[in-house]
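Notes continue from the previous slide.

Worked example: a multi-chain complex. Inputs as given:
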Amino acid sequence: MSRSRDVTHSASTYEELSCVELVELITDYLEGALPEELRDRFDRHIGRCTGCSTYVAQMRATIEATGGLTPEALSPEAERGLLDAFRGWRQPAD
Amino acid sequence: MRSKWSVIRGSSHGGAKRYARAVENQAVAPVEDETELIAALRAGDEAAFRALIAMYHAMLVRVARMYVSTQALAEEVAQETWLAVIEGIDRFEGRSSLKTWLFRILTNRAKTRGIREGRTLPFSSLEPADPAVESDRFNGADHNWPGHWAAPPRAFPEERLLAAETREVIEHAIAALPPTQRTVISLRDVEGWSAEEVCNALTLTETNQRVLLHRARSAVRAALEQYLDESES
């Protein structure tokens, strides 16, 4: 993993998170993958920092908007080809 | 042949999401109950097969494309996978989900092809990434508040997030991602797969899955921010 600063193994774990660190931890936070202590620091930070609470809201909005996209289509040609093959596989000519 | 799976017929675009909608409308049984789907496939039920390819073919091709050099090869690997599914369905024991089994077959085949082509595997190493947010948005080390926002983000205007143009911005941002990130964000956030399903299908560690998702989401957020900020001012 390459993060600009490895905050997960910081010697001074009680040091407050900075904003530049928080934006790199946000996915682990949203995925529920942060260790408890780090999650608490994250929560404390967004409780006080308008910029970062806005950032978290932006990220949640981004995920929701991405979820509104239409899944990739299967072209009619591709479907036809696969179905022809399926008929051949399951029902060999007799 | 009339079959419960025929509800999928005639739909215009693919993916598990559409299937989920059909499930919500109680048009088809939820995919958790795979026993019936598997039985239908074994019986040669074409509608069941059609339902399955509508759900997964496009993603199979996309995943295969990470391992092989051309779109044509990726299509071929996906085709082979379907053949293996049809041939192997009688022996499928249901220890994993059908989806996991399907993507395992695909990645194994695609890897073999990729190696034959002399390509390196896409997840063998993660390149160092750009920061999630441009570093000049934060205070420098000599500032009283180093690492804090110099140019803080502004709230996204909610009413614009659902606009067609905004969706296009997101689509372009995803299309511009490296293939591994594009696949992970497509499966997770567009198709709605769980982290575990993505790890299984792509044989990724949980950590690497999250790193790829993080980079992809951060890039999409940045593209959205740029677009929304520019058009606001």
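Summary box: The mean pLDDT of chain A is 83. Chain A touches chain B through 48 residues (CB under 8 Å).
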